[in-house]
Amino acid sequence: MTDARIGELAGLATAALWVVSSLSFTAAGRRLGATRVNLLRTLGAAVVLACVQWLWFGQWMPRTETAATVWLACSGLLGLTIGDQFLFTGYVMLGPRTVSLLMTLSPSLAATIAWIGFGEHMTPLSVLGMLITTGGVAWVTLGRQQVVSDRDARTIRKGLLFGLAAAVCQALGMVMARRGLVNGVDAFDAQTIRMYAGAASVIPVALYAQRSGRLAPAQASSRALGVLAIGTVSGPLLGVYCSMVAVKMVGVGVASTLIGLVPVLILPASWIIDRQRISTRAWIGAIIAVVGIALLAMGSGPPER
């Protein structure tokens, strides 16, 4: 099997796993709070990865070049701590369907950041894809038939802002991860470094939330903890690893296209699990957004090696 096919399969696997983690973290966040979910899942994933590193490689910390380690650590800080804090808060406020749709803006933002910050090529087709993705997202989120009409306007506005902030952080994290991966770092080592950085930085965030009184009361239960465990395995463990494989093998553009299928895949999953009615507008908007990401990938250059 070629590297490209492995990368494509890894991207599809990431999308499927992130659908599971999105639904799981939403359910857990409503009982435990977004900050607790971010803290527990990041620490849990870091401990598991540390054990695997020790048992498999005989060391706790991957041996990578300093530059690659710095890029990956910064990626973990932005993507796993700051970005996911916004993401989980958005899940609680709006639900996984709307926030996942907002996250389709991340590939366009990543391409723009790579173009401005690192001089990567951007074709007219890439720009067209960005515009189509943005239009699809805007058409759903700004339409009259709100998918979150049962919530008040202030909650909706805050949730949309948190979702957009999560997309920006994920875009920055993806670009930084790629800068580390192109230096020959293994995908598992990259995942471990990112998770270590996320675990180290999420602790002060949780402590600040507790001391400032912003840590919401928890409704802990075996079901909430079980759902959190499922989300942790499917998200920061398996999902993040598959995303690193996809980025390494086929580049940010193609990987983001495949991972960007989350808002489409999550629609039938939401209907099956929560029995939520899915409007035609939601289906069309999600498909338009994914088509835009595909055009963005087609206009992207080959991945760096």
Q: Explain this structure to me?
A:
The protein has 305 residues and is mainly alpha-helical. The protein has one domain (3-298). It is built from 11 helices and no strands. It has helices at residues 3-32, 34-57, 66-94, 96-102, 105-118, 124-141, 153-181, 187-211, 222-259, 262-274, 280-298. Helix 3 packs across helix 8 and helix 5 crosses helix 7 (153-181). The protein is globular and about 50 Å long.
Q: Mind sketching the topology for me?
A:
Blueprint: H1 3-32, H2 34-57, H3 66-94, H4 96-102, H5 105-118, H6 124-141, H7 153-181, H8 187-211, H9 222-259, H10 262-274, H11 280-298
What descriptive keywords fit this protein?
single chain; 305 residues; mainly alpha; 11 helices
Class from secondary-structure proportions:
mainly alpha
Tally of DSSP helical segments: 11
The total domain count is: 1
Low-confidence stretches: 144-148
Percent helix among the residues?
A: over 70%
Shape: globular
SSE string:
HHHHHHHHHHH
Radius of gyration: 18 Å
What is the rounded distance between the termini?
19 Å
What value does the average pLDDT take? 82
- Please report which band the strand proportion falls in: under 5%, 5-15%, 15-25%, 25-35%, 35-45% or over 45%: under 5%
**Main beta sheet, described?**
none
Count of individual beta strands:
0
In short:
It contains 11 helices and no strands. With 305 residues, it is mostly helical.
